[in-house]
C-alpha cells in the first residue's frame, strides 16, 4: 500500500518557490545572485499598520477568533468593497483566510467534484491549476499570447466553455504579465458569461491597487452586476500594503458559498492570525496615501526594466498595466547556445543558464503555462534591476 496520497501525483511544487530557493542556495555558497523571482514588495509594512499589530498584542487580542474573520475586519472589508468597487455585501457574504491562496483553495475545495472544469487563461499564476487538481477538478487552460496582450478574448472564452465548466478564473492585473482588463474588455467577457449561467466567476484582484498610467482597475461584479450572484471576488492586503508575511486574504460572494468555504477552513487552519487581522483592519481603514507613493516607485522600476529588456537581442518585453512583473517573450533566443555551452531549447533552459552563468534568478514561462517567456519581478531596488538588465543583455548577446 503506498504511503503518500495519489492526489499528490497530480500536482507539482511551486516553480517560483523552487527558483527562489535555488537562488538562495547559490547565494549561501558565496555566489553574487540577483533574485528577481519572488512576487513580494521590498517595502516594509507601513508603520501605522505594524503599530496596529503591536497594539493587538499589547491589548491581549491573541486568542482564537471566528473561523473566517473578526467582525471588525469584515466591516472594514465591506467598506473597502463599497468605497473602491461600488459593491455592497453583507457580513455573512465576507470570508477572511490565511492569505489569498487559502481563500482561493477554500472556494475550489468547497465546490469542485470530479469532472468539473475550471477555465484558466494562460499565462496564469502558478498555483491555479494545481489547486484545481487538488480539489478534484480539471483545469482547462486557454493560451493568451502577445497577439492578444496576454488577455483572453470573448471568442476564446466562449470556445472553452462546456457543460462541465464550473468556474472561470480571472486575474487582473495579472501575475505573471501585469496585463490589465479595461471596463469594455470585461464587459465583453461578461456578455459571454451571461449566456452560460452555470459558469461561476472566481476573480483574483490581489493587484487591484498596483496600477500605472491611464489604466483604471475594475472587477467583473462591478462591471456587470448580473454576475454578482455567481462571482467570488478575492483580494487581500499582501501586495499593496506590503504585508505578505502577515497572511491575510479575503473574499466576498454569495452567502451559501461563503458558508461552505468557512466549513473547509474550520477543518483545516481555523481562524487566521488574530494579530494579523487587527493589522489588516488598520490597513483597510487607515491612511492610503503611501500606495500612490509606492506605485510611483514601481512605475519607475517597470520602465527601467522594460527598456533594459527590450535592448536585449531576441527579447520582446511589453509594457504592463499593473502589478510588479514583466513577462518578456524570448522566441529569438530559442535554438541557440549560451556562452557557457548550454543549448537553449526551452525557456526553462534559458532561466537555468541565466542563473548559473550570470547569477540572475527569473522564473521560466512554462511554469505559468505560456512559452517561450520568463517572468521578472521588479519589486527590488533600481540598482539591482539595472545590474540585472546588464547581465541579461550580456547573456543574450552571448547566445550563438
Automatic annotation (TrEMBL):
Respond yes or no to whether keyword Transferase is given for this record: yes
The UniProt keyword set, sorted, is: Aminotransferase, Pyridoxal phosphate, Transferase
Any single GO BP term:
amino acid metabolic process
Q: Where are the bilayer-spanning segments? A: none
Which part of the chain is the Aminotransferase class I/classII large domain? 32-392
Q: Which cofactor does it need?
A: pyridoxal 5'-phosphate
Matches recorded under Gene3D superfamilies:
Aspartate Aminotransferase, domain 1, Type I PLP-dependent aspartate aminotransferase-like (Major domain)
EC annotation? Answer: 2.6.1.-
Q: What class of enzyme is it?
A: transferase
PROSITE patterns of this UniProt entry? AA_TRANSFER_CLASS_1
InterPro entries, per database record: Aminotransferase_I/II_large, AspAT/PAT-like, NHTrfase_class1_PyrdxlP-BS, PyrdxlP-dep_Trfase, PyrdxlP-dep_Trfase_major, PyrdxlP-dep_Trfase_small
Show the GO MF annotations.
L-aspartate:2-oxoglutarate aminotransferase activity; pyridoxal phosphate binding
Spell out the reaction equation it catalyses: L-aspartate + 2-oxoglutarate = oxaloacetate + L-glutamate
Q: Which Pfam families match?
A: Aminotran_1_2
> What's this protein's family per the entry?
Belongs to the class-I pyridoxal-phosphate-dependent aminotransferase family.
How the protein assembles, per its UniProt entry? Homodimer.
This chain belongs to the protein called: Aminotransferase
Query: What organism is this sequence from?
Result: Limimaricola cinnabarinus
Amino acid at each position: 500500500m503506498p504511503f503518500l496520497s495519489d492526489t499528490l501525483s497530480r500536482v507539482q511544487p511551486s516553480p517560483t518557490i523552487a527558483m527562489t530557493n535555488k537562488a538562495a542556495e547559490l547565494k549561501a555558497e558565496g555566489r553574487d545572485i540577483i533574485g528577481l523571482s519572488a512576487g513580494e514588495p521590498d517595502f516594509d509594512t507601513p508603520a501605522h499598520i505594524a503599530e496596529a499589530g503591536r497594539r493587538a498584542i499589547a491589548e491581549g487580542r491573541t486568542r482564537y477568533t471566528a473561523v473566517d474573520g473578526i467582525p471588525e475586519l469584515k466591516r472594514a472589508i465591506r467598506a473597502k468593497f463599497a468605497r473602491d468597487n461600488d459593491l455592497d455585501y453583507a457580513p455573512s457574504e465576507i470570508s477572511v483566510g490565511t492569505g489569498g491562496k487559502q481563500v482561493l483553495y477554500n472556494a475550489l475545495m468547497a465546490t469542485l467534484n470530479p469532472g468539473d472544469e475550471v477555465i484558466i487563461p494562460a499565462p496564469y499564476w502558478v498555483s491555479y491549476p494545481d489547486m484545481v487538481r487538488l480539489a478534484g477538478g480539471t483545469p482547462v487552460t486557454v493560451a493568451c499570447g502577445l497577439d492578444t496582450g496576454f488577455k483572453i478574448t470573448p471568442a476564446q472564452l466562449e470556445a472553452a466553455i462546456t457543460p462541465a465548466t464550473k468556474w472561470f478564473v480571472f486575474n487582473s492585473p495579472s501575475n505573471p504579465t501585469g496585463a490589465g482588463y479595461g471596463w469594455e474588455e470585461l464587459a465583453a467577457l461578461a456578455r459571454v458569461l451571461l449566456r452560460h449561467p452555470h459558469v461561476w466567476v472566481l476573480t483574483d484582484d490581489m493587484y487591484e491597487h498596483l496600477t500605472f498610467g491611464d489604466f483604471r482597475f475594475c472587477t467583473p461584479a462591478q462591471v456587470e452586476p448580473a454576475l454578482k450572484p455567481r462571482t467570488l471576488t478575492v483580494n487581500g492586503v499582501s501586495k499593496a500594503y506590503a504585508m505578505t508575511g502577515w497572511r491575510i486574504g479575503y473574499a466576498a460572494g454569495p452567502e451559501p458559498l461563503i458558508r461552505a468555504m468557512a466549513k473547509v477552513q474550520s477543518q483545516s487552519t481555523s481562524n487566521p492570525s488574530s494579530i494579523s487581522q487587527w493589522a489588516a483592519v488598520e490597513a483597510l481603514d487607515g491612511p492610503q496615501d503611501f500606495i500612490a507613493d509606492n506605485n510611483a516607485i514601481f512605475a519607475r522600476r517597470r520602465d527601467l526594466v522594460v527598456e533594459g529588456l527590450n535592448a536585449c537581442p531576441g527579447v520582446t518585453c511589453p509594457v504592463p498595466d499593473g502589478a510588479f512583473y514583466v513577462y518578456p517573450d524570448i522566441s529569438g533566443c530559442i535554438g541557440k547556445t549560451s556562452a557557457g555551452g548550454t543549448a537553449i531549447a526551452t525557456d526553462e533552459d534559458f532561466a537555468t543558464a541565466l542563473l548559473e552563468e550570470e547569477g540572475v534568478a527569473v522564473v521560466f514561462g512554462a511554469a505559468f503555462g505560456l512559452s517561450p517567456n520568463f517572468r521578472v519581478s521588479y519589486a527590488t531596488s533600481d540598482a539591482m534591476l539595472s545590474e540585472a538588465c546588464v547581465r541579461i543583455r550580456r547573456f543574450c548577446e552571448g547566445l550563438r
